Amino acid sequence: MVVLGAGPAGLVLANILLDRGIDCVVLERAGRGDVRARARAGFLAAHTVRVLRQHGLAGGLDRHGRPHSTCEFRSEEGRFRLDYSGLGLGERHTVYPQQDLVADLLARFEERGGQIRFATEAVAVRHADTPRPEVEVREADGRPGLWRARYVAGCDGRHGAARRSLPPGTVRHHRDHGVTWLGLLAQAPPSLDAVGYAVHARGFAGHMARTSDITRYYLQCERGMPAHAWSPERIWDELDLRMRAREYGPLHRGPLVQRTVVTLESDVMEPLRHGALFLAGDAAGLISPSAAKGANLAVLEADLLARALIDDLTANDPGGLNAYSARGLTHIWRAQEFSHWMTALLHGPAGTDGESRFHNSLRRSRLTSLRTSRSHQDWFAEHYVGI
Ligand code: APR
């Protein structure tokens, strides 16, 4: 088995397979240090934690992860909180930075004797329609190489070789939400004991805890704005304004240790299987980060694919592999639907024309419904933390 990509999808898949004695190699374009240092998501759904525990992959998150179950919405109409562990399915998130999870998964894979080739870029997957697919690679020293396997898992993200190797006829459903965020990591403790979503005429602002001294903030910005266009003072002033710090309490300021520009985009590749090539994680679909579903979907798909591969390779039962695409897509589309709803809840058109006013009034009404309707809150909780 060849797994492309050492992100959450590839490493969860490879760990589960190796644990069941299935020979697999992970090919990763980046170096070890880069893979471990990439700060990204951090909100793990209850299902994700269950999967990781079940496969002995939750040591680090059980020691250092923190339970989280509250979100706070702020807007011109005031603020309200939802404790979603008391709503819907009664589940909560565990906050554990994705780079720590990736480091744990790497360590576990290598402890078990797993083989991972860093600085090895997959260039193309060939002959996926035969029982002997090949992966053409560029090795760390720049020389070409070739890997053959029974199956190939494309867990190499949106710009990976798996997506580039799909046959004609693969459908890419795509949506650009027309929204851009400046994503910030601040070396400062969280400013509120909740995920903060601020809806403001100047644009969205968000607050998400990471650790006791690192906090993630998001600021909606103009499309095309360079990550370093604004000074730290301007960023903190803008966050104060949109988060309404004067009314609801100050934000803890600190050095901004990372800035990235995030274009809110979603896409889904269909189907997720092409003969011997399977897609999982970002390679299967991108999801706008509004509802923190990306890493959770990646783990869900990796688990689904691992079970199907184990049935096929150890019990000669191809049923799971045949059903993988349809099953994966059902979860992906439900997550897409909710993320799309969240994106529309948190961002409105900036204009003052009739259509913009109409959309913004709908958005206000959605927030009011979420503040006042218990059944709406149950629906929100089930989808927000569920996967
Ligand atoms: N060959 C080998 N490896 C590659 C190639 C390639 N051609 N292209 C990309 N990669 C590697 C990347 O360097 C990266 O380590 O594939 C890995 C993909 O990992 P992620 O981007 O983390 O994707 P995934 O495992 O699908 O996780 C998905 O986590 O934080 C979220 O936003 C993220 O939603 C995403 C989720």
Can you tag this structure with a few keywords?
2 domains, alpha+beta, 387 residues, binds adenosine-5-diphosphoribose, D-Amino Acid Oxidase, Chain A, domain 2, FAD/NAD(P)-binding domain
Domain unit count: 2
Envelope shape: globular
User: Which CATH class of the largest domain?
Assistant: Alpha Beta
Number of strands: 20
Number of distinct helices = 12
* Widest β-sheet, arrangement of strands: 6-5-14-15-16-13-17-20
The CATH superfamily of the largest domain is: FAD/NAD(P)-binding domain
Share of β-strand residues: 25-35%
N- to C-terminal distance = 27 Å
Bound molecules: adenosine-5-diphosphoribose
Provide the helix percentage: 25-40%
CATH topology of the largest domain: FAD/NAD(P)-binding domain
Biggest beta sheet summary: 8 strands, mixed
> Mean pLDDT, nearest integer?
95
